[in-house]
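Lecture 7, part B: from sequences to assemblies.

Below are the input chains for today's worked example.
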Amino acid sequence: MYYYIFDLKKCRKHSQVADIKNYLASLGISGEFTYPSAATNIEELVDLGLSKKYNTIVGVGGDEIADRIASKIVGHPEAMGLIPLEASSDLTHLIGTANWKDAAENLRYRRIIETRIGLTANGSGFLTNLNLNLKNPTEVTLEFRDYLVQARAISVLVSNFSQGVKKIAPDHLDIVMKNAAPKPAGLLATFSNLFSSKNENLGYSMFRARSLRIFTNSQVNLLSGGYVVAKTPQLVESSDEDLRLIVGKKT
Amino acid sequence: MENNTDTIIGINVTLKGNLHNKGSIQVNGNIEGEVRSDENVLIGETAKIKGPVIAKKIEISGEVKGLVDASEKLEINSSGRIYGDINAKSLVIKEGAIFVGKSTSSSTPEKQGELKKAPTEKDEVPKTEPIENKDKLGFFSKK
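Predicted structure of the full complex, as C-alpha cells:
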C-alpha cells in the first residue's frame, strides 16, 4: 500500500533510515522502501511505484524529493505523503508538521487534501514556491495573459503555497515582487530616512495568475526550498489537475 | 501590504496592458492601459495611469489620464489629478484636487430620460377645462 522513496542526503545518520523504517512498521504502515541512485532517479521510482499499484507514494526528505514526486503524480488518484527531513518551513506548514514521527502518524490517519502544484515549462513542479535567485537589483519582466510588468526587482516569489501569502484562488499562483527604490538625490537624500519605511511598503507588488512568463536581462536560477528547479526565461503555471496530499489533522 | 487586495502595483513598477480583476486593485506605480475591477480601485499618490479606470468604488490620490467610471463612488483626494471625463453615482472632490474634464452622474441620465419621455397613448393626459369656462372677462365670448 505504501511506497517510500528515501532521499539519503537528508538523513543525518544512516541509522535514521532504520529508525524511520522501524517506526513505520510499529504504526503498521510499512511498505516498500526505495532509494534513488545513478541508475534509477526519483521520477523512475515513482513510475515503478505506480506500476506496482501502490496507492500511496511517500517521499522521505526535503523540498526536492517532495516536488519531484508531486510533479509525477499530480492528476493521479494515488495519494502522496511526505516524511520531512530538513524541509523548508513552507513545506512543513503545508503538510502540518516538521517532525518526522508526527508526519508518519499522519500517513496512518490519511487525511487527504486536494491541491494544485506549480509547474515550469521544463517539466519540474513545486508544491510551495519558487524564488528568483537575485543577488543584485535586476530588470525583471513578468508577462501575464493580458499585461506586462517591468521593474528593477530585488526579490520575486512565485507562490503555490506560502505561509505569508493569502491565497485567494486555489488554481492561481500568487506572485510577490519587491522592487528596488531609486536612491534619492540632493535634499531628498537628507530626508529619505523619514520616508524610507513608507516607500518600502509601496515597493511591494502582488499579482494572481494561472500562468506567467519570467524574463530577466541575464539568466537567473529559480529556486524551490534552496535547490535549482529551472532558469529564466521560464514559463510557470498552476497545474490543471489536483494532487492528493496527505496532511496533518490541523492543516 | 493589504491582505484584502487582489493585485498591487508597487512604486516604480510599470504595467502595460489591460488589468481586469474581480477583486480590489491598489496602484502605486505606472500603468498604460485599462484598469477594471468588480470591487475597488485605490490609486496611490505615486501612481500614474494612462487609460480608463472602471470599478465599483475608486479612490484617487495619484494621476489618471483617461476616463474614470465608478458605478458607486468616486473620491478624489487632495493630491489626486484627473485629466479626463468622470462618471460616478456618488462623487467627492477634496480641496486641492485637480480635475480637468466633464463630469456626469450615473443617476442623472435616468432622470433626464424621464423628463424627455414622450407621452404615449396609455399615459394619462391631464384634462383641461374648456376655454369658455375660463373666460370670465368675456374676451372670447361672442358679442
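Note for the exam: The radius of gyration of chain A is 20 Å. Keep this in mind when comparing with the next example.
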